[in-house]
Design brief:
The protein has helices at about 15-25, 40-50, 110-120, 135-140, and strands spanning about 5, 55-60, 65-75, 90-100, 125-130. By secondary structure, it is α+β, with helices and mostly antiparallel strands. The radius of gyration is 16 Å and the shape is globular.
Length: about 160
């Protein structure tokens, strides 16, 4: 099986959106918790992200897209005073790493993630962040991502998903 990783085209935004939606479903998020306008929401997000050096990559096997990953500059501002100089704080963010179930455990997510990291490094990022699922964590750790010290407290009951 030959896996080809390439930059996604704008015409493939809907595939990227479907993968992001499917990732939520695979994580156990119930249909009732997903906005019925999910496709439009994701497509609008991607369009706005293009202003932040957004780039998506897809994995193809025999001409079929079997996985995707998106990345962009990380732009959360105002959570705390950032006293670092610009050259030490240009952070990239990777999101939506997804591989179709029948193609998992073949290194595709690792290749997609590596490609996004190279892109982010190429635009001058000094750090890359992502939010990992339990399934994705070993993939990212194998690429040198640390477990980090980010912590979270859920204030709603998430036991249903």
């Amino acid at each position: 099986m030959k896996i080809a990783i390439r930059e996604a085209t704008q015409q493939e935004d809907r595939i990227i959106a479907r993968h992001f939606y499917q990732m939520s479903k695979d994580l156990g998020v119930p249909d009732d918790n997903i906005n019925p306008d999910w496709l439009d929401i994701i497509l609008q997000f991607i369009e706005q992200a293009r202003q932040l050096f957004y780039k998506a990559f897809v994995a193809e096997v025999d001409g079929a897209i079997v996985g995707s990953a998106s990345c962009q500059l990380y732009t959360i501002k105002g959570l705390y005073p950032n006293i670092l100089k610009q050259q030490y704080r240009k952070t990239g963010y990777i999101w939506g790493v997804y591989v179709e179930p029948s193609y998992r455990r073949q290194g595709i997510a690792k290749q997609l993630t590596s490609t996004t990291v190279k892109y982010l490094k190429g635009i001058g990022c000094t750090r890359v962040r992502l939010d990992a699922s339990v399934m994705g964590k070993p993939v990212y750790e194998s690429l040198g991502f640390s477990s980090g010290n980010a912590m979270q407290l859920d204030l709603i009951d998430t036991s249903s998903f």
